[in-house]
Structure formats: structure tokens, C-alpha cells
Amino acid sequence: MKITADLLRSKGACASQVALFKELFPQGAVVTVARCRRVASRFDWTWAANNLLGAIAQKAYNEATATARMACYKARASAGKAYDKARATAQKAYDEARATAEKAYYKSIAPAEKAYYKSIAPARKAYNEARATAQMAYNEVVGAAQKAYDEATAPAGKAYNEARAPAQKAYDEAVAPAWMVYDEAVAPAQKAYNEATATARMAYDKARAVAFATEAMKS
Predict the structure, then answer these.
(1) Distance (Å, whole) CA 48 – CA 208
(2) HSE (CB half, 13 Å, CA atoms) of 106?
(3) How far apart are CA 182 and CA 201, in angstroms?
(4) Tens digit of pLDDT for each residue in 133-156?
(5) Residue 183 above 90 pLDDT?
(6) How many Cα neighbours within 13 Å face the side chain of 131?
(7) What is the pTM of this model?
(8) 187-198 burial by CB neighbour count: b if 16+ within 10 A, else e?
């Protein structure tokens, strides 16, 4: 069997796989076991089997790859369990640190928030009254009331933001180390997961590539 980019396109292959095939095999390629093994991790062999092989060859492909597929799934499941456990512990620590920082943050801004709403209350009241009274001339009257409202609340808003800034900074500083600890705690688990699944994944990819080549060469 010879595979070309045009053949892949005609079978509905995704653009990225077609582009990769053209990059590696500009003139197309005759299927061989050696050639498929060299690019075992680059292509979706199950798609290739389902779209380029006949029914009998597809069945043979599935039978030939079943053991490697099962081994890959088991390796991923086992490594995934360890990864999830490590991630859960790190997530819990991060959440606790964040909760503490948030509590301190809201406690810190509470006086400023209270002062802010108290300060804007008269302006908001006047604004609402102006809107209610002047509903018929909504655009004109509310425009003036909005302007008055903005002018009246601007100093309070500025004071609120200034009071809030240190609390925000303290919150960010409190959360940052927790996030760093989370990343550091998860990183070894991620590395262990990748290492644990890499061998099984590589074996599975090679088994699929060889099985596809074996059946395609019979076509």
C-alpha cells in the first residue's frame, strides 16, 4: 500500500496529520514495518487502520494491538491514581492558604467598604429619586443625576481603592507562596506520571504502527 497526502485528505484525515505526513513524506510512501516503526509516535494508527484497511485487516489490527493497548491503559490508570492523590494534597494546602488570605483580605477592606457605601448613600438616594421623579424626561434628568452621582462618589471610590490596595497586595503575597508550593508538590507527581506511562505508551504506539504496517502490506 502506498499512502499519499491526497489519499489521507480523501479519507478525512485531520489537517495537522496531513501536514505532518507531507513534511515527512513529500512524495508519499509505501508502507513498511521499518518505516512505520520510525514514526510510531507521530501518527494516529487506529485512525489509519479504521480508514485505510479493510474489515478483515482492521480486525487483525485490533487483535494484534489489544495487549499493548491494555498495558497502556493500566499504566495510565495506576500512574493517574498517584498523580491525582498528590495533586489533591497540594490542592487542599493551596485552598487552605487561599481561604486564610481571603479572610484576612475581606477583614482588612471591611472598614473601607463600609465607609464607601456610607459615603455614597446620599448620592445614590438622590440619584434614585431623580430617576423616579424625572422618568418622563429620563435621558435628560438622569444624565444630570448620573453626572452628580459620579462626581459625588468619585472621592469615596478613590479612597476605597486606596484602602483596598494594601489588602489586595497582602492577599496576593499570601497566595503566591501557596501556589508555588502547589506547583512544586504537583511537579514530581506529573513527572512520575509521565515516566510511568511513557514506556507503555511507546510500546503501544509501536505495536499499532507494526500492526498497521503488517496488514497494509498485505493489501
Answers:
(1) 10
(2) 5
(3) 27
(4) 766 666 776 777 788 888 888 888
(5) no
(6) 12
(7) 0.49
(8) eebeeebeebbe
